[in-house]
Amino acid sequence: MDPAKLLDILGNENRRRIIQLLASRPCYVSEISGRLGVGPKAIISHLDLLEQAGIIECSVDEQRRKYFNIANNMRLEVLLSPYTYTVTLHDIHFNREKGGETPSKKETLDREESSTLLLKLSSRLRELKKRQEELTQMQQQLQAEYTEIMDQCLDSIEKVATNPIECELLFELLRNETTLASLCYNLRLHPSVINASLTALEKRGFIEYSIKNNQYYWKIRETGAENE
Amino acid sequence: MDPAKLLDILGNENRRRIIQLLASRPCYVSEISGRLGVGPKAIISHLDLLEQAGIIECSVDEQRRKYFNIANNMRLEVLLSPYTYTVTLHDIHFNREKGGETPSKKETLDREESSTLLLKLSSRLRELKKRQEELTQMQQQLQAEYTEIMDQCLDSIEKVATNPIECELLFELLRNETTLASLCYNLRLHPSVINASLTALEKRGFIEYSIKNNQYYWKIRETGAENE
């Protein structure tokens, strides 16, 4: 799914409430409507939209009533800082439909074995939650350091650049290695102007290029220190 | 900031485009309007909203023109799976205004030293990006495993529960330790019904409680295996 599409979907409070409800249990339309205090007509139109986007799916129970559940497993991440805005959406695959081993094993488990297994699995879930919190911590530290270093870089760039265009170029290249064409587009400057500055910066040892897919990609020169 | 508020803000495409532009460089209203092909009136109303939310801030340049930049450093994460919907927003603090050491050190750096520093910082940025990718990988694996284990748990629960209410209770407790009141609210069942089932499940060794802030919190019994 396009991350922008997901942001559009999550931009509506009632859709968020529907998703939250379905993540706690599969529900019928009447249940959702009653629980959220929103008319069934509006609920159905949200459900249609969520279903089309592949976020939910519907099934039919023994009494031929339709119920809905979350179909997807995904992680959306938005990083926002003075130097970054990135939106990433990961579809996470899991072995739900796999079957194979598990069902046959399942048949042979009696109630006692199932009990032990349940306690074991529950303890594994707790571990995973703890690990999740650790990863979140690490990610925050990383983002904080990134922003601090970018601040320091801006100070250095002001010192080493001989004109505003060099400033802009170094700043762009610091964030990503990039092509002449992208630089022209982002900075709205003529290729000849940018090329002259790139050449000057390369001569002074600040930047270098590599060729990928028949294109020149410019980046800040690697000093070799980062190659572990 | 309330994560719901941020989702409301990001639910609009033009606001996302403004944020993206400002994360690449501070801009004037006229620049934003020209770049995005959206009238200045609409841009200004989006900017007002973004400023009120604390996402952007404005400054005035030497020619007394207002320009806008990203004021915040934050990470929004949405996890969505058949068993989870969590939205977390982390405000990430960084030492931007700190000053102290850095400025005095900055004064003493000449152009040559600044050049070396810039290359060093750039190489650190590259490391951070690599690390970021690794963390993202880990987080995805974690989420996949979580969903798989929840699937297995559901199988076990079906085996060990003697009635649908026990099923529901075990499922709720698997996701979070929780109070009687929350269970009543989530399952829409009378306290006496839930209490009877909790007592039965406790007797059979599936669940246990702890007391926090004068409240009973029920959870799946810890077997001790998870305590490293």
TrEMBL record, chains A, B:
Every HTH arsR-type domain range: 5-80
Pfam families linked to this entry: HTH_5, HTH_Cmi2_C
Keywords for this protein: Coiled coil, DNA-binding, Stress response, Transcription, Transcription regulation
Coiled coil: 118-152
Domain of life of the native organism: Archaea
GO terms for MF: DNA binding; DNA-binding transcription factor activity
Keyword Transport belongs to the record: no
InterPro entries on file: ArsR-like_HTH, HTH_ArsR_DNA-bd_dom, HTH_Cmi2_C, HTH_MetalResp_TranReg, WH-like_DNA-bd_sf, WH_DNA-bd_sf
Name of the featured protein: Archaeal heat shock regulator, ArsR family
Organism name: Methanosarcina thermophila (strain ATCC 43570 / DSM 1825 / OCM 12 / VKM B-1830 / TM-1)
